[in-house]
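Appendix B, record 7
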Amino acid sequence: MTKTYAALLRGINVSGRRRVPMAELRALLEGLGHTDVRTYLQSGNAVFATDSGAGEEELRTTLEDAIEERFGFRVDCLVRDGGYLAAVADACPFPAAELEGRQLHAIYYSEPADPERFAAIDREAHLPEDFALGDRVLYLYTPEGLGNSKLGEAVSRPSVVKGLVATGRNWNTVVRLVEMTREH
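Structure tokens (predicted):
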């Protein structure tokens, strides 16, 4: 049975470093036997279909190994199926339809994040910014955008995310990836 996934690559194509051209990423995914491969933006978002029967972790490991072999550096990746992406969007505790995409973000994690990780963050001090935890995701509301967000810095500190692979996407990208995985 064919299943559709999104691959979320962390920290590529930023300031000309760790370059992974999207055309080459598409070719790499096709070379791994995936079909209907498409990319979105230049920041490491790819959608693909596979009937391999492999799960998210096996697909992730295979992709990370292939990227390292092809480009000469390791890139942390998360692979999530379309159903998970849709569930994350549907479970958003913030009024996503009323916000600009730059005001709301999903930070995807490699595994569930224990709320205790965030206990030292003084949420009141960061208002009106706020966050909420979901299934392997943190929803981050930043009314002035992520670039100016002190709360965004706080939830991303190494002491908070230690041991997790974390990669964020603004809400426009979250919605587009849901659409792309449904289009297959």
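Remarks on this record: The radius of gyration is 16 Å. Strands lie at 3-9, 35-40, 45-50, 77-81, 104-109, 130-134, 137-141, 166-170.
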